[in-house]
Write a structure and sequence with these properties.
CATH architecture: Alpha-Beta Complex
Number of domains: 1
Helix content: 25-40%
Radius of gyration: 18 Å
Largest sheet: 7 strands, mixed
Order of helices and strands: EHEHEEHEEEEEEEHEEEHEEHEH
Number of strands: 17
Strand content: 15-25%
């Protein structure tokens, strides 16, 4: 019988460009309380997420690898929720490809449940893993033994969640959003940088046979209609000098405490 993967020893990977953000968010997650049995790989000075994450995969001493943004906070019990989903999939789909906490299906339906600064709670609780076309980059989970790699032709730090899910799909492996609530204490930007659109074009070129692709931030289509709509809206926002929707909350410990209350109702913006 094949041994079911557990979360006793996990490799966590994060791209880091701000040490303070890392220390005030990801590192306050209870799963990192000292001492802990997990490997932490912090990647710096890479020019793309794909290169950083492939390098981290080569360094991982564990099969189960969790890629997370530096401003994610994992509440108590998050690893148990992850393990519950892995156990369910061991029966339902033992050859799963990529797991995450928020994604979109092939018909554009959202799947997942997460808190994001500026937006509040996004999505609805899941009863179990739900198959999706792509997953948001904030949290991505895969097995080193799956052989999956990020495509290093994808530049910068956008759309690599869609890329790894499509790589899994090409190998006949499915991706899933799982019920594992976490906190994304991010700065909510209304206007995207030029790198976002360069990455969009690269993803579309690499995976042209899978277009349209539904990502959590934009739909990748043959004629780029969603891009034109977004850019027109961004011109309007720049003229109004409104490019940031919300700033990252400074008191991340308060956020964590709020969502760890026994009677917490994470249905509104904190």
């Amino acid at each position: 019988m094949t041994e079911v993967l557990t979360t006793k020893h996990v490799t966590f990977v994060a791209n880091v460009n701000d040490k303070l953000v890392l220390e005030k968010n990801l590192m306050i997650s209870p799963c990192f309380n000292t001492p802990h049995p997990h490997q932490l790989v912090l990647q710096k000075n890479f020019d793309s997420a794909a290169k950083a994450y492939n390098d981290a995969l080569s360094k991982s001493v564990n099969d189960l690898v969790v890629f997370a943004h530096q401003d994610i906070i994992f509440p108590s019990g998050w690893l148990s929720q992850l393990e519950d989903s892995i156990r369910l999939l061991a029966t339902k789909d033992p050859n799963w490809g990529v797991l995450g906490i928020f994604g979109k299906t092939s018909n554009g339906e959202e799947a997942g449940y997460v808190y994001s600064t500026g937006l509040g709670i996004i999505g609805d609780p899941l009863e179990g893993p739900k198959q999706v076309q792509t997953l948001d980059e904030i949290v991505l989970i895969l097995r080193k033994s799956s052989g999956l790699k990020f495509d290093e032709r994808l530049p910068h730090f956008h759309f690599y969640g869609a890329d790894i899910c499509l790589a899994a799909q090409k190998k006949g492996m499915q991706s899933y959003a799982i019920p594992a609530f976490c906190i994304h204490n991010t700065q909510f930007n209304l206007v995207m940088p030029s790198e976002f659109y360069a990455s969009y074009t690269a993803l579309k070129t690499i995976w042209k046979e899978y277009v349209p692709v539904h990502t959590t931030c934009i739909r990748v289509t043959k004629f780029n209609l969603d891009v034109y709509r977004r850019r027109l809206n961004e011109i309007n926002l720049r003229l109004r000098r409104k490019t940031v929707g919300a700033l990252r909350q400074e008191d991340s410990y308060r956020l964590l405490r709020e969502f760890e209350k026994p009677d917490a109702n994470p249905s509104t913006e904190s």
